[in-house]
Structure formats: C-alpha cells, structure tokens
C-alpha cells in the first residue's frame, strides 16, 4: 500500500486547465509553508516567492511565458501564480534549492486538492522588471496554482531498469532512442498542449453556436 507521500508523488499532474475559483488564503499559506520547509544546502534557504493573483499581472506573466511559440494561457487562467526567485549571494546552488522548494509546493498543493504546473520557459528580464524583482535575484520557475478543471492522463515515464545503475554506470541499461523520443522531452509536453488547445477550440465553437 502506498503511503500518502508516495501517492502524492505518483498522482500529481501538470495541470493546464483550471476552474474559475479562487484559492482560499489558508490553503495558499499551507502551500507556501511547505516551500519554506524544503531542504537546502547548508540550510541557506536562498529563496523568495512572489505570489501573483491580480488578473492583469497574470496576463503579463502569460504573455511573457511561451512554449514552442504557444502562449501559456493557463498562467492567466489559474487564480494564482508563484514566481520562485533564488539569491546567488546566499548559495551558488540556489537553482537546486529553489527547485526542491518548488517540488514541495506542487506536492503540498496536490495533497490539498489543488493543481499546479511548473513553468520553466519565460522572459526573465521582462518579468523581473515588471514585478520589481531586484538583482542579483534570479527567477528559477513560475508555478501556477488552482483547482483543476480536469485531471490529465499519467505522463509517460522511463522504466526503472533504464535509469537505475548499481555500483557503476551500465550503458546497456540506458534508454533507447525510441524511449527517449516517445517517453521524454518536448514532444510529450507538446502533445498535451495541442490536445488542450483543440479541446478549448471545440468548446468555444460549441458556445458560439449556442
């Protein structure tokens, strides 16, 4: 039987469609508290979290975050976005530390019935200027947060025997080119995004026809 933590790890999904429903302040604070308790090298805690709820600000984030030239509309549709910033003065490993904090955010959110999506492609200079994020802080990621409109299908994963090596690296256990193309990388994400776009277009067309 899976523990609650194992269940959250396996059931968490990247959510790209959200209900038009605000996230209660109590749940938001619990998610942020989970981030605060993330591990970091020498307990440096080199993170800052910018919580974005205003519609205009979310629209700006959406316009400056794109994947394969497609605007990430779910950033503006999610009621909350969290910009994770790292301070290189406190740790040169801030990227790793802030990523651990982001993982805590996503797992805690899932356990509380919320959905999230990690956004790693964005116009950092424009976003830093707009949200008054000072140098030398760097943006590590943006995480959307809200109640899922739908739960995506499980994403493909490489089998353990293709990624785990005991005592030394065994190249015979490395994933094949077919595994890499079909189970990892941008194509697996692009399929999900295109599926979501087509579904939205059908829904909007149905609404226009009444």
Key words describing this protein structure:
alpha+beta, NADH Oxidase, 2 domains, 8 helices, globular
Topology diagram in text:
Layout: H1 4-11, H2 25-36, E1 47-52, H3 55-63, E2 66-67, E3 70-71, H4 73-77, E4 80-86, H5 94-111, E5 115-119, H6 124-130, E6 138-146, H7 177-183, H8 186-209
Described by strand count, sense and barrel closure, the largest sheet is: 4 strands, antiparallel
What is the CA-CA span between the terminal residues? 48 Å
The first-level CATH class name of the largest domain: Alpha Beta
Order of helices and strands: HHEHEEHEHEHEHH
Number of domains: 2
Content of β-strand: 5-15%
Rg of Cα set = 18 Å
CATH superfamily of the largest domain: NADH Oxidase
- The CATH topology of the largest domain comes to NADH Oxidase
Textual characterization of the structure:
The chain contains eight helices and six strands, in the order ααβαββαβαβαβαα. It is α+β, with helices and mostly antiparallel strands. The chain folds into two domains: 4-151, NADH Oxidase, CATH 3.40.109; 155-210, no CATH class. The strands form two sheets. It has a four-stranded antiparallel sheet with strand order 1-4-6-5. A hairpin with a 2-residue loop joins strand 2 (66-67) and strand 3 (70-71). The chain is globular, with a radius of gyration of 18 Å.
């Amino acid at each position: 039987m899976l523990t609650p933590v194992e269940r959250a790890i396996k059931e968490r999904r990247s959510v790209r469609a959200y209900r038009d429903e605000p996230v209660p302040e109590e749940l938001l604070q619990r998610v942020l508290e989970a981030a605060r308790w993330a591990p970091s090298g020498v307990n440096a805690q080199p993170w800052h979290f910018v919580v974005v709820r205003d519609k205009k600000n979310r629209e700006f984030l959406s316009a400056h975050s794109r994947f394969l030239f497609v605007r990430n509309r779910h950033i503006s549709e999610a009621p909350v976005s969290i910009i994770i910033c790292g301070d290189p003065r406190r740790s040169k490993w801030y990227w790793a530390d802030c990523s651990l904090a982001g993982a805590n955010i996503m797992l805690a959110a899932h356990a509380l019935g919320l959905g999230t999506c990690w956004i790693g492609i964005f116009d950092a200079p424009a976003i830093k200027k707009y949200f008054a994020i000072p140098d030398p802080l760097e943006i590590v990621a943006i995480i959307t947060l809200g109640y899922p409109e739908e739960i995506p299908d499980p994403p493909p994963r490489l089998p353990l025997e293709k990624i785990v090596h005991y005592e030394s690296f065994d190249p015979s256990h490395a994933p094949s080119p077919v595994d890499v193309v079909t189970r990892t990388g941008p194509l697996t994400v692009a399929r999900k995004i295109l599926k979501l776009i087509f579904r939205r277009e059908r829904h909007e067309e149905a609404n226009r026809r009444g």
